[in-house]
Amino acid sequence: MTVLVEPDIRAGHPLRAVRPWTIALVFGIIATVLCAAASWIPSLWGDEAATLLSAKRPVGSLLSMLTHVDAVHGLYYLVMHGWIRVAGESPFALRLPSALAVGAAVAAVTLLAGRRGGPRAAVIAGVVAAVLPRLTYAGEEARSYAFTAAAAAWLTLLLLWLVDGGGGRLSPAARRAAWVAYGVGMAVASYLFLYFATLLVAHGVILLATRASRATLRAWALCAAGAAVAVLPLAVLAFLERNQISYLSATPDDPAIWYYFLWFGMPWVAIPAWGLIVCALWPAWQRWRQRASRPVLPGPRAASTRLVAASWLFLPTGLMLLVNLLYPMYTGRYSTFAAPAAALLITEGLFVLGRRLGRDAGRAATATVAATAVFVALCAPVYVLQRGPFAKNDSDWAEISAAMAANAKPGDAVVFDESAKPSQRPRLAMRTYPEGFRGLRDVTLRTPYYRNDSWADRAYSVTQAAARGRFDGVERVWVVEVEIDGEQDISGLPELQAIGFGERGRTITDHRSVIIELTR
User: Fold this and answer.
1) What is the mean pLDDT of residues 403-411?
2) H helices of 18-90, where?
3) What gap in Å lies between CA 415 and CA 133, rounded to an integer?
4) Which residues, 6+ apart, have CB-to-CB distance to 232 below 8 Å?
5) Cα 152 from Cα 340, distance rounded (Å)
6) CA 107/CA 125 separation, integer angstroms
7) What are the φ/ψ torsions at residue 441 (nearest 5 degrees)?
């Protein structure tokens, strides 16, 4: 693919000789390393447990599960099914594909910024995208969201290449093949995550705003229609499984959701980031107001970075939020595929700010670099917080496993708090960090996850397990309890006391879990 680059009116001499693909490769590697660094420290959490346990299932069992839950993640689970057989099941191995995906997304961001702004814009965009909190978080999470960011960036680049005339040098057959690749890419990415299909709305608006030719509009419409038809079976399954996200209706106004929705992690990043986005869009708004009073000139228009990024950032998320008003179905991480657009607009805002602060080209360039450094400094604390041991939804499963390894003995029984919602149950500590539970008896296990039509285990109550003789011969039991929202329900403790066990001691983890030792 040839990336069209206009004359670099903002670039300094050292960058003019650097090829766009070199910049893309360098920043892709930097972003991958940043995301992978310390990614093994945070405990895996509920969504990542769903990834691991789904990927570990036999393919037949996985396909059966997808007809009941998580159909929207099915393709990702199949990819991870193959990956863990090569790379293993450690937190680092599980999260590495996401780090690679973010690297690919950042590489595409540099190409998108450089197509109109030249090498300097590509470099600044690479820096911004590499530290953007939504991307650095997605890059250390074993979920499909990082892949949607990469797919959105590269498919947008492919569309612009076809619209800008890059495909004009192709033979008709090759150009048709490029459009087919676009349509197939949209369908595949939507199977990675269904809401990705809303990107088609942004792409359609970009084509209309640039007055694309009828042939281009027709080719795009055919590809979009083909992708929509291909995704229809997944949409039907997702509708049938909609109760899976019913919990979103319980916390529609949770401020944490909106911080993640803003792509910026924390308020001290969100406020200046939105300020830079306004700086980027303000000149375009002023030009639009001036143009509104003038005659409209015929012919196509160039797809500016601002137009592309604004359509991509606001339209898909806006559409999801409109649907969310009628039926709760949205949380901020679902807009991860729009994060590259946020990076592009922030980059444009940094250049606008630099020109405002600098009186000449040299000072403007210096001001832009300084403002970029400030933005990186603001993002740095978020990056550090993302790599703390309890950064993922307050999960402390790794600590639970370590505590069990230090205290429990082979032949001891373990009972888990089953009162929390499935994604927060401490039973998942045993599934995600099994080393600390080796040799212990899971006395309440009813049906293991790989025999269920959902991704999690099913368990008996203590009373039911005792009635089945599960505690026969057991002299010591460890009860693992979890605190949710400041409350702790010691489930199973009275039942254990009723069958002859007495509390001997408690181990309180550094975070939110309590491990209770009971003996006969």
Assistant:
1) 96
2) 20-36, 46-56, 59-66, 74-87
3) 37
4) none
5) 8
6) 10
7) -100, 120
Hunting for tokens 């339209």 — which residue is that? 315
Dmax of the chain from CA atoms? 89
Q: What is the mean pLDDT of the chain?
A: 90
- Position 421: which residue type? K
User: 165: left (phi > 0), else alpha (psi -120 to 50), else beta?
Assistant: left
Tokens matching residue 441: 């008896």
* Token digits of residue 65: 């599960």
Q: Strands 413-416 and 445-447: what pairing? A: unpaired
Written as one string, the DSSP assignment of 125-162 is: HHHHHHH-HHHHHHTTSSSSHHHHHHHHHHHHHHHHHH
Token pair listed for 154: 């590269």
C-alpha 463, offset from chain centre? 41
Amino acid present at 509: T
CA 106/CA 129 separation, integer angstroms? 6
Q: Determine the 3-state secondary structure of 103 from DSSP.
A: helix
Using CA atoms, how far apart are residues 283 and 389, in angstroms rounded to an integer?
43
Closest CA to 246 of 138, 327, 159: 327
Helices (H), 387-500: 397-407, 427-432, 462-467, 493-498
Q: Bridge partners of 488? A: 483
Q: What is the pTM of this model?
A: 0.93
Query: What pLDDT does residue 379 have?
Result: 97
Annotate 350-372 with three-state secondary structure.
HHHHHHHHCCCHHHHHHHHHHHH
| Least confident residue range of 53-67, 84-98, 157-171, 454-468 | 157-171
Position 3 scores a pLDDT of: 46
Compare 260 and 335 and report the one with higher pLDDT: 335
Rounded to 5°, angle at Cα 292 from 288 and 298: 95
Bridge partners, residue 83, by sequence? none
Per the CB < 8 A criterion, the answer to whether 338 and 312 are in contact is yes
Torsion-angle region of residue 519: left (phi > 0), alpha (psi -120 to 50) or beta? beta
**3-state SS assignment for residue 324:** helix
Residue 430 vs residues 12, 36, 193, 426, 480: alpha-carbon distances, Å:
55, 24, 28, 8, 11
Question: Could you read off the pLDDT of 15-54 as tens digits, one per residue?
Answer: 666 799 999 999 999 999 999 999 999 999 999 999 999 9
Total residues found in the chain within this entry: 520
For residues 341 and 156, give the distance between their C-alpha atoms in angstroms, rounded to a whole number. 10
Interval 319-329: pLDDT, tens: 998 998 888 88
Report, in this order, helix, strand and coil percent for the chain, each rounded to 5.
Answer: 65, 5, 25
Residues ≥6 apart with Cβ < 8 Å to 293: none
Sign of CA dihedral 169, 173, 175, 178: negative
For residue 347, the model assigns a pLDDT of 98
